[in-house]
Write a structure and sequence with these properties.
The protein is mainly beta and 199 residues long. The protein has a single domain, classed as Alpha-Beta Complex (Sulfite Oxidase, Chain A, domain 2). 7% of the residues lie in helices and 31% in strands. It has three helices and eleven strands. Strands 1, 4, 5, 8, 9 and 10 form a six-stranded mixed beta sheet that branches. A hairpin with a 4-residue loop joins strand 6 and strand 7. It is globular, with a radius of gyration of 20 Å. The chain starts with 23 loop residues before the first strand and ends in an 18-residue tail after the last helix. The relative contact order is 0.19. InterPro entries: OxRdtase_Mopterin-bd_dom, OxRdtase_Mopterin-bd_sf. Pfam families: Oxidored_molyb.
């Protein structure tokens, strides 16, 4: 004789998403910035790559958006402990932007229109790991989230994905950016919980 009510299968354990340590799942898209949101018009926007020798490669908005782009779905992780999963972006791969750039650099400083900077190893921007993104969730990227274009480096904490990105400066030696000078970790791997210097 069965003592289980027909149709009762017990409570299923809710599967938890795989998040980096110390992170919680965000269902909205929090807006965090070090200062006021700049409003950069696309007719005045340009993206500039400056080599270690001072050579420059520049794109206007129309030239930039005419480059081959990719649609990517990635998880993003903020140092303030929220993570947002399966976010959809469109952007130009950094590999594409660097195709004709001759450099011996191992490091890059990303520069934003508001003066923000953040440093990255060049290898973390190559081989399909980073983009300059200009659309989010099938819409133009809003200024609050870094529009018209932001750096997207999803395998690192999101402060490395510089909002309102204006360009990349190639560097032979590493140097700290804005938050790195203020005590944030120089690299920022969320899976190793590298939030602050010494982590």
């Amino acid at each position: 004789m069965s003592f289980v009510t027909p149709g009762f299968g017990g409570l299923r354990r809710k599967q938890q998403p795989d998040l980096p340590p110390g992170q919680y799942l965000a269902h909205d898209f929090p807006v965090l910035s070090a200062g006021p949101t700049p409003r950069v018009r696309t007719d005045r926007w340009e993206f500039v790559i400056t080599t270690e020798s001072g050579g420059q490669h520049k794109w206007t908005w129309d030239e930039f958006t005419a480059l081959p782009s990719e649609d990517v779905t990635v998880d993003i992780h903020c140092v303030t402990k929220w993570s947002k999963l399966q976010t959809g972006w469109r952007g130009v791969p950094i590999d594409t932007l660097l195709e004709d750039v001759e450099t011996a650099a191992d490091f890059v400083m990303a520069h934003s229109y508001d003066g923000y900077t953040t440093n990255l190893p060049l290898e973390d921007l190559l081989d399909g790991k980073a983009w300059v993104a200009y659309r989010y969730d099938d819409e133009p990227l809003e200024p609050e989230h870094g529009g018209p274009a932001r750096l997207l480096v999803p395998h690192l904490y999101f402060w490395k994905s510089a909002k309102w990105v204006h360009g990349l400066r190639m560097m032979l030696e590493d140097e700290p950016g804005f938050w790195e000078e203020a005590g944030y970790h120089n690299y920022g791997d969320p899976w190793r919980e590298q939030r602050y210097q010494g982590d």
